[in-house]
Amino acid sequence: MKIHLETERCIIRDLEESDLDGMFDLDSNVNVHKFLGKNPIKTKDEALEIIKNIRGQYKDFGIGRWAIEDKATNDFIGWTGFKREKKLRPDRVYIDIGYRLREKFWGKGIGTETALACLKYGFETLSFDEVCGCADIDHTASNAILRKIGLQYIEDFEFKGISLHWYALKKSEWKIK
Ligand SMILES: CC(C)(COP(=O)(O)OP(=O)(O)OC[C@H]1O[C@@H](n2cnc3c(N)ncnc32)[C@H](O)[C@@H]1OP(=O)(O)O)[C@@H](O)C(=O)NCCC(=O)NCCS
Q1: pLDDT confidence of residue 1
Q2: Where are the beta strands (DSSP E) in the chain?
Q3: What spacing in Å lies between the alpha carbon of 112 and ligand 1's midpoint?
Q4: What is the CA(140)–ligand 1 centre distance, in A?
Q5: What are phi and psi of 128, to 5 degrees?
Q6: Å from CA of 64 to ligand 1 middle
Q7: Residue 72: pLDDT above 80?
Q8: Residue of the nearest CA to atom 1 in ligand 1?
Q9: pTM score, two decimals?
Q10: How far, in Å, is the centroid of ligand 1 from the Cα of 126?
Q11: CATH 3.40.630.30 fits 3-173, yes or no
């Protein structure tokens, strides 16, 4: 099991096929998918496909979303971290930062804690020049995390008829504020 980093409460590690039950709980939840196209999965086979796809990204690009594990209980909390993204903005390929937590872990600061640690790791260890992110304009919590970790609002754009806020941060501007 590859551990990438640790925060006060969490281990951030590669996603494994043994995370299947946690991933099914995460992605079959209609509340989790409220701002993600409202199309939660229905079967564990679909959850397994998602895990395999992410593990394929580790191989192909060296990055992909990482599992968040509760240090105290070893519970699967959800995922965070980076993805080489090319579908959302047809004019560019970029490093996206994102997060998705099981509902019972919401509202405890874990989204912010883990995203902040990932961003530091992305700039310092993975040497990214720029990290970008986006969220539905009505998604208060996700927009709050992107702003709190220091990404700068750039513009709005549309994807599949949904308006999103677009953020970016260059390594050269990181921590300058
Ligand atoms: C978005 C998500 C990761 C937030 O994680 P979290 O651990 O609950 O967030 P935090 O506790 O770190 O809170 C981040 C900020 O959002 C605010 N917030 C959290 N939940 C909120 C809610 N339901 N409504 C409004 N604000 C909320 C917090 O108050 C905090 O802001 P503040 O510091 O200004 O007070 C989580 O709700 C989730 O996984 N949602 C489903 C997947 C998803 O939508 N991912 C993002 C796609 S762009």
Answers
A1: 82
A2: 3-6, 10-13, 66-70, 76-85, 94-101, 130-136, 152-159, 162-170
A3: 8
A4: 7
A5: -70, 145
A6: 21
A7: yes
A8: 142
A9: 0.97
A10: 26
A11: yes
Pocket of ligand 1 (CB under 6 A): 32, 35-36, 78, 99-101, 106-112, 135, 139-142, 144-145, 148
**Which residue has the least CA distance to atom 48 on ligand 1?**
135
Cα dist from 100 to 17, 26, 27, 91, whole Å? 17, 8, 9, 25
Give the tokens for residue 121. Answer: 């790791």
Apex CA 62: angle with CA 100 and CA 81, to 5°?
20
Sequence ranges of the domains in the chain: 3-173
Whether the CA torsion 114, 119, 120, 121 is positive or negative: it is positive
Strand 66-70 and strand 10-13: pairing? antiparallel
Q: What is the pLDDT of residues 161-173, one digit of tens each?
A: 999 999 999 999 9
The token pair at 44 is 């564990």
